[in-house]
Prior knowledge:
Blueprint lengths: L9 H8 L5 H8 L11 H8 L4 H14 L2 H13 L1 H13 L1 H9 L19 H7 L6 H20 L5 H26 L1 H6 E7 L1 H4 L9 E9 L5 H20 L10 E2 L12 E2 L1 H10 L3 H7 L3 E5 L1 H16 L7 H10 L21 H15 L11 H10 L5 H25 L10 H10 L6 H30 L13 H10 L5 H12 L4 H18 L4 H15 L5 H7 L1 H11 L4 H7 L19 H14 L3 H28 L10 H32 L5 E7 L1 H4 L9 E9 L5 H19 L10 E2 L12 E3 H10 L3 H6 L4 E5 L1 H15 L7 H17 L18 H15 L11 H10 L5 H25 L10 H10 L7 H24 L4
Parallel strand pairs: 2-3, 2-4, 7-8, 7-9
Antiparallel strand pairs: 1-2, 1-5, 6-7, 6-10
Helix pairs in contact: 1-2, 2-4, 4-6, 4-7, 5-6, 6-9, 8-10, 9-10, 10-13, 14-16, 18-19, 18-22, 19-20, 20-22, 21-22, 22-25, 23-24, 24-26, 25-26, 25-27, 25-28, 26-28, 27-28, 28-31, 29-31, 30-31, 30-32, 31-32, 32-34, 39-40, 39-43, 40-41, 41-42, 41-43
Amino acid sequence: MTTVPGRRSSTFTRLLRHGFTDPSAAERLLELDDLASVRSDPVLLEALGATADPDLALRGLVRLVEAEEEGERQVLLDTLVTAKPLRDRLLGVLGASEALGDHLARHPRDWQALVTYESIDLNPGVAEFERGLADAVDPDSLRVAYRRCMLTLAARDVCGTTGIAQTAAELADLATATLRAALAIARTAAPEDAAQCRLAVVAMGKCGGHELNYVSDVDVIFVGEARDGVEEHKAMQAATRLAAHMMRICSETTAEGTIWEVDANLRPEGRNGPLVRTLSSHLAYYQRWAKTWEFQALLKARAVAGDPELGQGYVDAVSPLVWQAADRENFVPDVQKMRRRVVDNIPVDRIDRELKLGPGGLRDVEFAVQLLQLVHGRSDASLHSGTTLEALRALAEGGYVGRADAAQLDEAYRFLRSMEHRIQLHRLRRTHLVPEDEADLRRLGRSLGMRTDPVAELNKAWRRHASVVRRLHEKIFYRPLLDAVAQLAPGESRLSTKAAAIRLEALGYADPAAALRHLEALSSGVSRKAAIQRTLLPVLLGWFADSADPDAGLLGFRKVSDALGKTPWYLRLLRDEGAAAENLARVLSAGRLAPDLLMRAPEAVAILGDPEGLTPRTREHLEQEVLAAVGRAGGAEPAIAVVRGVRRRELFRTTAADIIGSYGTEDSPAEQDHGALVDRVGSAVTDLNAATIAGALRAAVREQWGDTLPTRFAVIGMGRFGGHELSYGSDADVLFVHRPREGVSDEEAARAANAVVGEMRRLLQLPTADPPLLIDADLRPEGKTGPMVRTLKSYGAYYRRWSLVWESQALLRAEHMAGDAELGREFIELVDPLRYPAEGLGDDAVREIRRLKARMESERMPRGADPTLHAKLGRGGLSDVEWTVQLMQMQHGWAEPGLRTTRTREALAAACAAELIPGEDAQMLDEAWVLATRVRNAVMLVRGRPGDTFPSDPRELAAVGRYLGYEPGHVGDMLDDYRRITRRARAVVEERFYGAVV
């Protein structure tokens, strides 16, 4: 063919119009002599242009023609242009599957399998596939026959003759026939083994569910029995050899490639269990040891090969156990764990391309359907199907899933499975990743009928369906629960009250009847408020169920809604600000403290919808607000009421941020730096209490003296308060210091200072709905017997003459918190030489500190407390770490400026930087201190009152576990981890504190 230089040939233009991406290469292929008889036939180009990848189809056709014997080539080409069914099927396969093109190039006569088109070819079953594999006598011939059968199956698929569900069923039937053929080959190779045992192959997973992929592991379980007169252990050995050989026949790679992996890891005990068990051994395991996920897997069990009676006996025996799984003791925590089925194991660079495991993927649909089957299949046999789409249809017909939701999930699942099939079909490789290459995406889109802009259309459709699945995955659990207590459209099925209660119980609600009453109260009626609640509740119920106490979450939501339901902004905030609703659900179901704070001022829920709402306010900001409020108030008590209201609001902000940071949300994972969480809480609560004390001081002074107190007055923070390490339930340890103003007598100044202290303490403990702030001054000179407040000169005199080593140690935490800043600075200058003595501590002082610590360990531990689990005084707990760090501060603070800090973690890091303690030891101490602090915070959040030990109540203990990052059912792991971490820290304490190294 000749063309004018610079101009495209007409063939080139036609190829481009028919979808070829490399028309020049295609034109060269069409010019080959082997295609001379068909190159100008318009039907060929039309047919090639209709394929998913015309370039690939043409290359495959050329390879096939070249591979055919010379005398058969023309027969192939003549049939191709005259028989449209063959043309569509053959070119359709060649354009969709490079792997099947390779097969045809190796076995060119197999194209003839696509010529016949009898009615039986439309819906072949196991028997038809068995006939197709009948001539296979070894692994190679089985692979060739398997590919030949798959060729016809794929042809029907790509031509649209069969839908996705039928294709998946045919693939499962082909797998069944293949397993039978492989077992027959294994038996032929070892007739003596076959004579000793009965062996049944039970399909699991997608093969068992009649919904297999093109390339997927075929999950199986083997059941064996001895034949008459054969000892059981010998029969099991023979059955194991047969089963292992059958697996190798299918799985191993030969000159003809591989078929698929046969995976027996779903068997009892997984990889560690015997490959073949007797039926009684299987049952004994399931009745005693099996976990919920194993019963979920058994939903799809189906006898497929070997001894049919034995296989069916296995299915019949385990089926009742499947439907009793929801009655098991650990079903709820197991379900909660399965529901979360995190995608953490998917590499970050793949998560957005994962069709199966990613958010909105196939697993979301399959899991949701299977879980609802387990919950409701106990009482409804219509749900006993191993096929996802059939089970989804049955769930909709029974009212367990809304019909509209079921229809959307069905459509999305079919689309995603179609994508998965076409991706795998290309090279017959096991993958669930959407390709990144433009050409691959174009072929994929065209294979699904998208021709205008295949890549853009594919991405749009994929994202739309994934979004539907992600949205409905949670919704389908809870929407029918609302329908059970609401008015439905005529003819719409509803979940019965009993079924709704069963579902709530299965999802962790301890009082389903009360939960249903709350749902009815929130969502009944035709008001706009009820309509918005019906939109919100399905998602909220899922978040509540994700916690350790769903009942408390739902009850709290009802109380907040009752309090704020008539305000125009509340429901609009939850509906329109996506984070607000999830944040509220997390806060309400995490324990008592945060909901109690919120119930006292429900309007604080607005904090949860503000992007900056969870950021703690600075001390300067808080003091400015508090002092301004005191200045506007008409008296001390009204002023302190405002101050304590600010404290309550900010405590709620801090608890909410802590809970949400610890739990994480759908858009923001849980904070992994637990030390940062602890530091934020400690700093926020310290700043808040300092501002509160400043407000109380200003209110007390204004009440009696106006703007000026007769003596300059400062509040010094001590203990955890001075160390910026307060937990939610901590008292504020303080010292009070004053200095008479010029012209004021010492007696008048002392009376004024003591009056102010008394009034501050009274105001902060007034009985109100707001949490009190207890001020503890017991660390003052002479303790409880000494004066409550002293002058700076009196402190100096006492410390010079009477100070004990423990008082110097306590002063390590001293920091000015409120009142006269200059006086506070002078106090710190006064005590610095005491807490950081020049040249460090003497031997006598070190021995005294160790003696005091040992005495505290033996005398202050509460009777009956487990010393391995006491966060403050127990082994490797807060006291151990802090005394070890403080001893280093007193020994070396004079020489190392970094040690001159009131904060434990900062001082420990400085000691490590100064090489006073090895990095590994410092890490152990820091980890134990952070964990013990989080335990104390968790106990306060969960119980609403402070505590230093893990709760004994199982639900409260589970809630502490959730806060600490442990999945349901893993509180034992939490306690083990705590003991391990603190045991290691105690070993460091023994060496660094009690040993010779300081």
